[in-house]
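> call design_seq(struct)
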């Protein structure tokens, strides 16, 4: 048997060594602290920086105070000197009392709002001026415009049929008096949409859903192209529609959907 195993003191030698080393560490720490002249004495560098900060802060406060006290505020035409509290108070009240001005930009009007109702009551753009600009009967459409219009027509075809023959969700465009009639009607339908019963080529239709304002988000050129296309396809022949004509009726965007009665009547 090993003698060290029997001796309890020898068995715990490592423990006593540990205690010793830790105590020594604390003793050394204490001595260095005392040598520095007390644990609470501030670092001289830190102290210098702290004093400098206080000095700068005092300068900033002083300058702000003198500026704020020279503030003036205009009220009812007269300019008065005001302290910052009064200025903030007044500005706050003015902000709370201010109301945003209603937008009259047709594309931004909220449907059903007072502004929308006012716009709806406003007369349409000068439709006769638009129709007067229509090229004389027999004017052939531009081939490039027709090509552009054909592309755009894909959207219309969903409801009006690929050959404008009409279907369960849209009336025919082929042989429609509306399509061959006044250009202003067609442009306004694009800008505002169309709802309610409509008679096309002598037949009355009443679709469950209205036509949406398809042209509101398209350029003047695109609307002119698609209308020129439907006026010169599926057996229809009518003078082309110009981008200028479309532009003249942009103001219609944002107004409620048209009804047949809102359009210039065409032959049944
Ligand atoms: C979501 C289906 C739908 C789409 C897409 C659509 N329309 Fe219509 N369109 C209708 C409906 C429905 C009517 C009839 C509205 C009514 O009830 O008075 C109509 C009516 C018309 C009329 C007048 C009536 C007639 O048959 O001549 C024209 C012109 C017309 N649309 C052109 C177009 C053009 C051009 C496009 C593509 C830019 C287009 N529509 C896209 C559903 C649609």
């Amino acid at each position: 048997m090993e003698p060290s195993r029997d001796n309890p003191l020898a068995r715990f030698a490592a423990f006593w060594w540990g205690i010793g080393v830790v105590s020594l560490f604390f003793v050394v720490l204490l001595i260095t602290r005392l040598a520095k002249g007390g644990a609470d004495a501030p670092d001289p560098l830190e102290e210098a920086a702290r004093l400098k900060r206080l000095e700068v802060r005092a300068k900033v406060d002083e300058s702000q105070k003198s500026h704020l006290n020279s503030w003036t505020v205009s009220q009812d035409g007269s300019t008065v000197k005001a302290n910052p509290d009064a200025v903030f108070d007044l500005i706050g009240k003015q902000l709370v009392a201010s109301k945003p001005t209603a937008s009259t930009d047709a594309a931004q009007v909220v449907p059903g709002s007072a502004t929308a109702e006012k716009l709806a009551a406003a007369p349409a753009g000068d439709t006769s001026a638009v129709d007067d600009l229509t090229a004389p009967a027999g004017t052939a459409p531009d081939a490039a415009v027709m090509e552009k219009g054909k592309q755009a027509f894909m959207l219309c075809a969903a409801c009006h049929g690929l050959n404008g023959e009409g279907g369960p969700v849209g009336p025919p465009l082929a042989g429609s008096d509306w399509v061959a009639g006044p250009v202003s009607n067609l442009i306004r339908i694009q800008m505002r949409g169309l709802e309610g019963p409509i008679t096309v080529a002598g037949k009355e239709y009443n679709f469950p859903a209205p036509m949406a304002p398809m042209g509101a988000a398209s350029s003047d050129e695109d609307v002119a192209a698609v209308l020129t296309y439907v006026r010169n396809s599926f057996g229809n022949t009518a003078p082309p529609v110009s981008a200028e004509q479309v532009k003249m009726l942009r103001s219609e965007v944002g107004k409620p959907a048209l009804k047949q009665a809102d359009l210039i009547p065409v032959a049944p």
